[in-house]
């Protein structure tokens, strides 16, 4: 796993509880890079426990903490390593001949697919 060495965007260690300090749950056991990309459009991301990723536009309603292990495999329970979300550099912009409006493709990760198609309306191989 890639651990963040991003002191330039690190905000600090903050306590978490229910309801969550950062309200948008993205997933668990995520790389920092995927978490950062998934939180595009938000101001902050929180990374906690087993690299759980959460996003939001504000943080700190439960105060600061001192037990975050932001560079470790297990970050800590009920604490968030808070980072500023940096502008996306991996957005792919394309245009079609039927529309002048750009479409933005956002990489969210690699997922398994099968014959009944994970994405509705997707074609089959070779079609």
List its traits.
five-stranded antiparallel sheet, 127 residues, mainly beta
In what range is the share of β-strand residues?
Answer: 25-35%
Helix content percent band: under 10%
Largest sheet: 5 strands, antiparallel
The class by helix and strand makeup works out as mainly beta
- Gross geometry: globular
Mean pLDDT: 77
Cross-sheet strand order for the largest sheet: 1-5-3-4-2
Return residue spans where pLDDT drops below 50 for at least 5 consecutive residues: 89-107, 122-127
Please give the count of helices. Answer: 1
Description:
Helices cover 6% and strands 30% of the residues. It has 1 helix and 7 strands. It has one helix spanning 32-38, and strands at 10-15, 24-27, 44-48, 52-56, 79-84, 92-96, 99-105. A 5-stranded antiparallel sheet has the order 1-5-3-4-2, with helices on one face. It starts with 9 loop residues before the first strand and ends in a 22-residue tail after the last strand.
